[in-house]
């Protein structure tokens, strides 16, 4: 039977920001955001650029003529090329507001199944085109920035959005086989009637995909225990230019290196993840949560460490320094704030919260808001400091573009390092960033929080904002980005805990990972992607002298 034609799925998204077309921010929202930024940075009269329109964007003509056999699911239409050019990082947003789309792909493909993916691989292989897998498009690290224009005769983005179904559910083992292009809301919607949830909720949940989460090792809802998506993967299916790999469904195995781990975090360089058996959770029935304030960030961090090492495994343990707490409405700017939450589908969790609060009090923590099973903890978590934080966390992505529109440098970086060096490393990171802000930009803000926690160390998340102009914002961003990245690597931290390496962090990733391991990755890629067409420039480079045959 002939397959139906395929193209972009569902409501169109804005190419310049977060959200759907037509969901524009009101002038009031923009003004409030601008006033907030002016107040935080102590500057005035910021000029806010207007949102770009499709008509204003100029593209190079597509270099590719789509063959008849592929035209049912490939396109060279302008909107499709524009929306697939950039991710959602600060650099992406700034180039979008500069109307700079020199890197637009030539073709966007919307495969309907694995056969279509294999056909694209064959076609790209024969013609020397680069292939860029695309999930939700929420990368903030240049995950699908195309190669330089003259490096390949053509660039094809493969958008997996039509692979968006749950294919099988195994309620006994509590797992489901899920297609990789599904976005967070559709995934949970399809699991809900079965009383199950994946409960992987990165801030980008609304517009990021299962395949993207796996390809980038994203971190979601759980602050401890199941932090990364890695541990929720039971088995993967991956289509590569060399063939398809289907790993075996197993709860655990000691049979050699885990084959799934070859692809988890491979950032689209080794093949396209088409579906995965994922481990699920029962839907949450019991909750207990509290917000606790600390006079000193480092004293509070000691309480957080002890909670993590006590085996309590809170689902939520966001620990915000005083500025981060103020920005998110969880504090007044004088104290650091811990938002602590426990949850279960099976049993009350009040005792865990009780023990967590005892530990906080030992380190001078003051409980500001608290609720357990008897007090409707869900309601409480949606009001007061916890509710304010939750609201801002969900709402702010819709305003992410305004920083670029204002020409203000604003970005985040995240890492992880061990507790034994926590104060020393954190102090030095803060010092280096503040010094660079002061010396080169006349000032700025850096604040931090813990978003994920391990018994042997935290995963701190730093937010940076600094004054700049529309003309120099990218240079200012690059300078601060490099200072922060150098600090992480020199101080023995990781270049990323969950945002992935992408093109943004590639030079520092090379310093973090042993050269022999990188050669092993290159050898694996040569086997799986013999023509080196998948995501050129990410994670590994083609070994010098490697001849591409065919
Ligand atoms: C507002 C905002 C908040 C964010 N919050 C979080 C957060 O809380 N936690 C977190 O971890 N990250 C977060 N991120 C970063 C981003 O959402 C994650 O990296 C996410 O996992 C990317 O998923 P995606 O489907 O959007 O992938 P994309 O951005 O489409 O792609 C990311 C990379 O994966 C590759 N890829 C995509 N799909 C596949 C596939 N099926 N097979 C092989 N390769 C593939 C792409 O080629 C690319 O290299 C945030 C980003 C934004 C903009």
From TrEMBL:
FAD-binding PCMH-type domain segment(s): 101-283
Source organism superkingdom: Bacteria
PROSITE patterns: FAD_PCMH
Single biological process term from Gene Ontology: lipid biosynthetic process
Flavoprotein as UniProt keyword: yes
Site for Important for enzyme activity, residues: 318
Keywords, in A-Z order: FAD, Flavoprotein
InterPro entries: Alkyl-DHAP_Synthase (IPR025650), FAD-bd_oxidored_4_C (IPR004113), FAD-bd_PCMH (IPR016166), FAD-bd_PCMH-like_sf (IPR036318), FAD-bd_PCMH_sub2 (IPR016169), FAD-linked_Oxase-like_C (IPR016164), Oxid_FAD_bind_N (IPR006094)
Known cofactor(s): FAD
Binding site for FAD: 133-139, 216-219, 267-273
An example molecular function term from Gene Ontology annotations: FAD binding
Active site feature: 461 (proton donor/acceptor)
Keyword Flavoprotein: yes
One protein family per Pfam: FAD_binding_4
Entry's family note: Belongs to the FAD-binding oxidoreductase/transferase type 4 family.
Name used for this protein in its record: FAD-binding protein
